[in-house]
Write a structure and sequence with these properties.
338 residues, alpha+beta, Porin, 2 domains, 8-stranded antiparallel β-barrel, 4-stranded antiparallel β-sheet, 2 helices, 12 strands, 41% strand
């Protein structure tokens, strides 16, 4: 029994020693392992920490650089935008100033044109008022003036040599509106076309520059003729009507002085008769000018138009020219104003 217990104690003791040895060995190994692993863990952690720190620093630096680049880009964009806005605002200001200056110049030009127009109107009104005042003053005293033109016919021996032509008349006179009697002077010009006449004697209105005996048949080609006249006539109204008494039917008559310009004549002898001595070839000469007294008489109608009067008139003129009288009949249309 004791041997068996003892054997068991030995076995338990051996087992305990063995377990203790194994435990000691394991502890030693564990300690050894614990001593190496912490050294290895600390070294790797430090390296990892340093790498992480480096990466963090790199990331932070990259982030800072990117932020700086972004801020710089934003700053440049903002500066460019501000400068562009400033440029646009300056351009808009300049355009506004240019438009304002253009508008001011246009307004000044319009004002100058308006001032010029008003000055022109004022001058025209002044001239018109002065003319109207002078006309009223002139007309209130009975004076009048006018202008007329028209047809000028020829008559008698004068008409055998000259064709009808035209007339210009400038009348100036005096006659009160309420009165029937007045006076008028005329300055006139009559132009008459020349004819070609074939006959055996020299036409009476055309004196020849040489003497002939007997009769001769010749062709006389006469150039145009002109008569300048100055007349003084009496006017009597047979009837007057209208507000200003400017519509009228009147008679006119008087005398005057007439200047006949010389005319060129081409005489072509055709057949001598009764031994007459004449040139055998055509001869060209110019008749002498003449200043002669004459008489005239006629009638006319006047039609009031405001302060003026339109009139139509015809007179018969006779001038006591050499060889025979010269006669012509103007029919004129004109205007008289007071």
């Amino acid at each position: 029994m004791r041997a068996h217990v003892w054997t068991r104690i030995k076995s338990f003791t051996a087992t305990a020693v063995l377990v203790a040895g194994v435990t000691t060995t394991a502890n030693a190994q564990a300690k050894t392992s614990q001593q190496r692993i912490p050294v290895q863990k600390e070294s790797a952690g430090d390296v990892a920490r340093r790498d992480s720190s480096a990466r963090a620093d790199s990331i932070a630096a990259a982030a800072a650089a990117a932020e700086a680049a972004r801020r710089d880009s934003v700053a440049r964009a903002e500066a460019a935008a501000r400068q562009d806005s400033i440029n646009k605002a300056d351009m808009a200001r300049r355009d506004s100033l240019a438009r304002a200056d253009s508008i001011a110049k246009a307004a000044a030009a319009v004002a100058a044109a308006e001032a010029a127009r008003r000055d022109s109107i004022a001058r025209e009104d002044s001239i018109r008022n002065a003319a109207a005042a002078a006309q009223r003053k002139f007309g209130s005293k009975g004076f009048f003036g006018g202008f007329a033109a028209g047809y000028s016919g020829t008559s008698g021996k004068y008409g055998d040599v000259y064709e009808p032509g035209w007339n210009i008349t400038i009348p100036i006179g005096w006659q009160r509106r309420a009165g029937r009697w007045g006076f008028r002077s005329d300055f006139m010009y009559d132009s008459h076309g020349g004819k070609s006449v074939t006959q055996s004697t020299v036409p009476d209105p055309i004196p020849t520059p040489y003497n002939t005996s007997g009769t001769v048949t010749s062709t006389y080609d006469v150039d145009n003729g002109a008569v300048w006249s100055g007349n003084l006539d009496v006017v009597v109204d047979l009837a007057k009507w209208g507000l200003n008494r400017l519509s009228q039917f009147y008679l006119i008559g008087g005398g005057g002085v007439h200047y006949f310009e010389g005319s060129k004549v081409l005489q072509t002898p055709l057949e001598p008769a009764n031994g007459a001595t004449v040139p055998t070839a055509p001869i060209s000469y110019e008749t002498d000018s003449q200043t002669k007294f004459g008489l005239n008489g006629g009638a006319g109608f006047g039609f009031a138009v405001g302060r003026t009067s339109l009139f139509i008139e015809s007179r018969y003129f006779t001038a006591y020219t050499d060889n025979t009288n010269s006669e012509w009949i103007p029919v004129i249309l004109g205007v008289k104003w007071r």
